[in-house]
Amino acid sequence: MNRRIWLPAILALLVAAGFSQDTVRTQVVSAGSIGWSAGVGFGATPVVAGAPYSAEEVDESVQTLSDGTHITHQSTVKMYRDSEGRTRTERSMAAPGANPVDGPIFIDILDPVAHVHYMLNTADKTARKQIIAPPESRRALNAATGSVAPPPPPPSSPARETANVESPKVTSEKLGHDTMQGLLVAGTRRTTTWPAGSMMGNDRPITAVDETWTSPDLQIVVLSKRSDPRTGETTMRLVNISRDEPDPNLFQPPADYTITEENREVFRH
Predict the structure, then answer these.
(1) Which of 98, 160, 212, 248 could form a disulfide with 94 if both were Cys (CB 3.0 to 4.6 A apart)?
(2) pLDDT of 201
(3) What does the H/E/C string look like for 63-88?
(4) How far is Cα 87 from Cα 37, in angstroms, rounded to an integer?
(5) pTM score of the predicted model
(6) In the CATH scheme, what is the homologous superfamily, with its name and number, of domain 3-148+166-267?
(7) Residue 191's closest CA among 176, 179, 175, 203?
């Protein structure tokens, strides 16, 4: 695929998706957060202060076809977080099938202290800068414009509950504690079962299992696994975890990068 075509397309998808893996990893709300949340793309991620780390995230998906053929995709993401809650994520933008080392790197930096968000492209040494408005700015804007939060949805009626008898059944169980990558982790397993006939004519129940192991200390997911007969097996694991303070220069665009600043504040919920 032509580089001029696939690179902008992948960048757009990453920004719009809000880095779904990052969203999953930060669903554990920090008891020691610095008071407001910021997110990449359209997602929101709680800020975690006082728990620096760096690691590599290895993502793997394995899909098994009806003839037994296995299709495997693997990618690696580098992640950093300092004691102030600043984060940096590095993703390879190599074309499909190419060596990740040969492709440009898309770098995302979120700085909740300076209230800025940078998106760096190593291919052309450019950076997009967004100013992130804290929650109090959003509340002030709502008060000035008369905006109010949308009302909560009405409670379910008996008729609606009857219509949802084919909704999936979800169960959750605690898996206790274990040690992974030198960290104490707590595990949870969630099983979702869709009854026969509830999903596009399935003639038997479909069951998906999600297993998550979270570090309470660092407030990150160290290992997550999903088994779904529709999509196959997916695994996310953190490796090479270091709890040392990352280099402060990692959370700033390099001096030789051209920075384009958006002239509006981005509100994060």
Answers:
(1) 98
(2) 82
(3) EECCCCCEEEEEEEEEEEECCCCCEE
(4) 12
(5) 0.69
(6) Lipoprotein localisation LolA/LolB/LppX (2.50.20.10)
(7) 175
